[in-house]
Design the sequence.
DNA sequence: CTGGATTGTTACGCGAAACAACAAACTCCC
DNA sequence: GGGAGTTTGTTGTTTCGCGTAACAATCCAG
């Protein structure tokens, strides 16, 4: 309930709001900003001046106006100058990216490895090494303003410690701290759950742009989720919100790695699909194996079709439950679930019609991820930029000091 | 993203925050307000002066201070002067109350009737009649600043139309509008789902005070729910959020009135319990019938015990799912679920241990409603007061005009 | 090239909250 | 009971963000 010296708060808030417009919406004229933010021309000028002076945005004359009147200056993010590091760690893959203000991926490196080959701790060195390499290539006037990592596991609110990650060999790992130390930039590294961050990404720059209530479902080895409720990421009391993978949809169903039975993850996860299709342990694994099943089903393979149908039924039931509970405007399927949904949309829709209540489902939109594999990385970048948008000047003052 | 003339916004916000403190926390000294709101002494004085002048609060010298220094003036809500009307409509009961600022129930009338005897439209006249009667009894200087109704059905966001209410014979009923017209006070009447409003009530003045992430489960004829996520009621895209009653927990389970099978409501609702206990249609109905089963189980009735155990298992599974998805700090059982939970807490806890993930459940608290039957009414009053807290002076200026 | 339209820029005023100084009222202690 | 110390109410002043208004700059249309 604190307010602080309120005038500064206003300024901070308005600076952040303006920067957020530019960051998420891309180049925009001062005239549009005045109308969208409901502030006065002169105020917008003062704000942009501050941000320009801080080196966060640049103002340029537009090429063509097309309308009468003096052309309005276009405010664009200093994408090449101001950037963050984004990390993404999955059980069989990691990626590092340098992401500029505005969401541009300036540099990117990734690597795949055998599933579960590395423990989370071991990766911190490699990740920070790549980041330092990228940093060395940058020009002198560039400035790193943050860093964040997405991990496929539970991240405790507050200290950002990775609590569980059965697919990642992690338990009580202070990953952010470790990464921050190794980066040596004096910056704290935020950590978030991968599906949560992918949800954030789709919400800010994906199919879910402008949608205030959405559910993002991510299929990887397991099933993760991220929920945007009322425009805000649902974190829960300890930060484990959105973990829909262990919602029980079939009490008499398959055993799940978590000890329970019939979890969404157990019925819809990669293993369930491959086993049903009689392809588990048959060499292929991961996204490619799932794709192969969907393609086989498309070609008329009965076993694959039935496996996909079965999985689609459970997925549909899970989605129906979530729709009943949340009444979202959109459900987004990402990761491996993109393929599964595309291959079993009919089953999903049938189950929705059966189990979801009419008012909740009548305006519902089902979509697949727009950002694809980059979603997690983009989400991590958003997380890293978050404190910049919360207090633009403070962050840059510290960075330039 | 609009900001408006920001100085007024600040003032409005601060006035609202101060009034909210007094409204929810009761009488409080100006000194405490300065520290809790983080504002300056002189600012607090200016704010309380405005609110006192508007007749919303009163300032008094405290009886005893106990501490050194000049005693700080105590700010208390004008509970007797400023009030709202709160309505609560269930399938077999309705209640009308006059609730003063601060949450005091000043006057109350209720009535029970045979389940489903009335359609929602028919009740508007009765309800407004009671309200008008209450209003006639008030002194001349009292002022009604709002009204709201809780209904056991889905309420569409925006226009407040009751979309569904299978237990209430309602379909596309513009209940708020109708009630507002009949009240004749020139006030809009907000409408909300009963479980949602009960959740709001427990969050603001019940066991969930200060808890930012909680789930309230309400058992009536069906099972309703309200979710507070990050301190805000989860409404969803169209306002049907929190409808947990039709989450499918047992796909092979009992048929539900909604057309689906194995919904939480179908497995845990009143009918499921009474049927399992062999008491369905045996004269008793409603809360009393449920209580009878729990009491019989307490006395050692095997059939009742098994019925309760079975229902408790499904309840526990439902709660486990919600805990996995939301990671709430607290789950509150209200209405008939209070009795059911108290009679089957062991089953609920067992299912939680089986199906809820450790990080989500380790800090979880299970509680029963503190406000009991008044929860819905109190929640409706909160809803009615909401716009007063959002802009105290504007509301009172209009009321006194 | 002129007029209308739109925006950038600057000087000024308003208002909300912080700050500082003083007065008021209490407790404690002798 | 009275003085010292403490805490708060009250008032005048200052600060700072934003809105307003007036003017300059720059576009398009004719």
Sequence:
């Amino acid at each position: 309930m604190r307010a602080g010296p309120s005038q500064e708060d206003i300024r901070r808030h308005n600076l952040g709001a303006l920067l957020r417009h530019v960051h998420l919406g891309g180049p925009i004229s001062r005239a549009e900003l005045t109308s969208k933010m409901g502030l006065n021309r002169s105020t917008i000028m003062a704000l942009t001046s501050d941000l320009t002076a801080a080196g966060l945005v640049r103002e340029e004359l537009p090429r063509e106006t097309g309308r009468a009147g003096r052309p309005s200056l276009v405010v664009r993010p200093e994408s090449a100058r101001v950037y963050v590091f984004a990390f993404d760690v999955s059980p069989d893959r990691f990626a590092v990216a340098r992401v500029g203000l505005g969401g541009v991926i300036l540099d990117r490196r990734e690597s795949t490895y055998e599933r579960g080959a590395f423990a989370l701790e071991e990766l911190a060195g490699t990740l920070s090494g790549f980041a330092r390499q990228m940093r060395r290539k940058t020009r002198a006037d560039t400035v790193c303003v943050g860093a964040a990592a997405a991990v496929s596991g539970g991240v405790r609110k507050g200290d950002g410690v990775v609590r569980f990650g059965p697919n990642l060999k992690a338990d009580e790992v202070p990953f952010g701290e470790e990464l921050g130390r190794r980066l040596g930039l004096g910056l704290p590294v935020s950590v978030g759950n991968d599906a949560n961050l992918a949800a954030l990404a789709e919400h800010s720059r994906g199919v879910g742009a402008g949608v205030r209530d959405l559910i993002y479902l991510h299929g990887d080895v397991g099933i993760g989720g991220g929920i945007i409720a009322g425009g805000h990421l649902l974190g829960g009391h300890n930060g484990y919100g959105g973990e829909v993978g262990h919602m029980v949809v079939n009490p008499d169903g398959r055993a799940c790695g978590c000890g329970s039975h019939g979890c969404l993850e157990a019925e819809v996860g990669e293993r369930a699909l491959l086993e049903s299709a009689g392809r588990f342990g048959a060499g292929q694994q991961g996204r490619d194996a799932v794709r192969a099943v969907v393609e086989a089903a498309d070609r008329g393979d009965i076993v694959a079709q039935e496996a996909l149908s079965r999985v689609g039924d459970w997925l549909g039931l899970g989605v129906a439950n979530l729709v009943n509970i949340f009444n979202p405007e959109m459900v987004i399927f990402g990761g491996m679930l993109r393929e599964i949904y595309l291959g079993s949309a009919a089953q999903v829709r049938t189950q929705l019609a059966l189990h979801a209540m009419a008012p909740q489902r009548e305006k519902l939109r089902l979509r697949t991820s727009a950002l694809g594999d980059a979603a997690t990385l983009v989400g991590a970048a958003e997380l890293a930029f978050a404190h910049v948008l919360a207090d633009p000047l403070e962050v840059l003052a510290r960075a330039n000091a």
In short: Chain A has 15 helices and 15 strands. Residues 302-326 of chain A form the longest helix (25 residues). Residues 3, 5-7, 29-31, 34, 41-42, 45, 65, 67-73 of chain A lie near DNA strand C (CB under 10 Å from a C1'). Chain A touches chain B through 62 residues (CB under 8 Å).
